[in-house]
What we know:
Helix content is 74%, strand content 0%. The protein is mainly α and 112 residues long. The protein has helices at residues 3-33, 39-57, 63-68, 85-111. It has one domain. The longest helix is centred in the N-terminal third of the chain and has 31 residues, at 3-33.
Amino acid sequence: xxxxxxxxxxxVLHTAIWIFFNIVIFYLLYAxxxxxxxxxxxxxxxxxxxxxxxxxxxxxxxxxxxxxxxxSGSDKANFDIYLPLWLxxxxxxxxxxxxxxxxxxxxxxxxx
Length: 112
């Protein structure tokens, strides 16, 4: 398998994982608005927590991005994932805000 094929495989995998995390994060958002703090909420929160831990361990980079760098010299934010450039550039900021809303909503629901 050549570098181009490996990079394509990483991009497909990275995009699939990104979609999975979107489903989890938007379920968490739904759960706090619908007052459904249940085992699925806690499971989703744990999954997101593991992703945050991975990002911290890899200096705020996805481990797949680190691997993809071996196969590309591109400095574009979306070189390793099938996302529009603007979304890849601001991905962490966007989801940090969404998760802040989730955590604040969770705290509000649990306090009330």
